[in-house]
Amino acid sequence: MKNGIKAIIGIAGVVAIIGLVIACNNETVHTCSFGEWQTKTSATCIAKETQERTCSSCVKTETREVGEFDLINGHDWDNYEGTEPSCLVDGEGTATCKLCSEEDDITKPKLGHSFTVYISNDNATCLEDGTETAICDRCPVEDERTEEDTALGHDMEVSGEVTQAATCTEDGIGKKECSICDHTEPYGVIDAPGHIFNDWSQTRAATCTVENQETRTCTLDCGEIGHTETQSTVAALGHQIINWSTYNTTTGHVSCDRSGCTGGIARLGDTGPAGGKIIYIAPTGFQVTSTTAAFTTYTAYYLEAAPANAVGGTTGEQTTMRWSTQTSSALYPDVTGTLLTIGSGRNNTALIIAAETAAYPDNTYIYAALAANNYRATGFETFTDWFLPSRDELLQLYYLSSDFGGLLGFFWSSSQANSNSAWMRNFINGNQSNGMKNVLNDVRAVRAF
């Protein structure tokens, strides 16, 4: 009996394992086992396909939709009956779906114009594009539009007409005309030929104070009737003072020897009576002062500079020399009484020579003051009153240095700065300074008359 009960219990456990679950509340829970999906309804124009599957134990079913409509737009209409659409009007009619045989009212959208072939109207101008026209492929409507980049541009041709004639000084202007339209433009330039002159002729000769004048006249009818030009080819001659015997020591005047000249005073740069060039003029005169027995004080009106540098030094032929005979500052004679002003150079020179001679009577070195005192211009050897210029007289020589071909270098004056130095001037830049008396500088003599 017990064995029978055990058997029954064993069979019940197997049944529970196969498919039954005993819940706490004594209810049984079923887990379906479905088969494959099967098509229930096929897809139509407006509905998707439906599918169904069934549980093999309890006959329970499930359904679903799959896929898309047969046509994206639904019905596939066929057998249309009605009006066809035109370019501007919709078509109206009925049609039957060839899938499901359903009928419906149909509107076919209007087609719009179709312009495919444009033909040029050949109406472009020089400056504006032309137009082109097309007829609709389905109706007689025309369309006109701009034919891009068809402007012709002007076709300019030279007409040969001169709108402004050329003159000697102004260009002429011609004209061009467009062969397509009435547009005109100035054309090119007819070059002005320039004046064509006759030969230069002298209309005024040079005088002592005025340069000559030459004139020429244009021979063309150039709009400037009688156009003339002038030039000067001969500078003012300057007074020709040959006979200085007319020199007036009271007025400083001297007569010009050039024919036709009534002038009576020399100019800066003129040749002086001793062969030099006049570098300074004082119309009212200046005093050439003397404090020595070498000469007496007198009134002068001109300073004349020698045409060449004086020579001196150890050999008497050197172009640069010391202010003093000595090379050591301890041995320089102190020349007292020299001045800086115009009119003092001749006396300064005499004071320097006196001091050097007194200190070194046996000296053979030719120093600056002595070299200037000894200077004689070739051909004018009778003039013996040359001297070393004072500081201010040397400045006048610097002002007129271009009249001598441009003097360069450092030049001595006769004005002592102190016992060790004297005034000198750089003729390259005009700077003045005081240099030691043993410095080698150039010497240019002057004279006052």
**Approximately how much beta-strand content do the residues carry?**
25-35%
Mean pLDDT: 83
Structural class: mainly beta
Fraction of residues in helix: 10-25%
Query: How would you write the strand order of the largest sheet?
Result: 1-2-3
Q: Count the beta strands.
A: 23
Please give the largest β-sheet: 3 strands, antiparallel
Number of H/I helices: 4
Evaluate the radius of gyration.
Answer: 65 Å
Which segments are poorly predicted (pLDDT under 50) over 5 or more consecutive residues? 1-26
Order of helices and strands: HEEEEEEEEEEEEEEEEEEHHHEEEEE
Tell me the distance between the termini.
185 Å
Give the CA-based shape: elongated
Short description:
The chain is mainly beta. It has helices spanning 2-18, 345-359, 368-374, 391-399, and strands spanning 38-41, 49-54, 61-66, 77-82, 91-97, 103-108, 119-120, 131-135, 142-146, 156-164, 172-178, 184-190, 201-204, 213-217, 228-231, 277-288, 298-305, 320-321, 410-418, 421-426, 432-436, 441-442, 446-448.
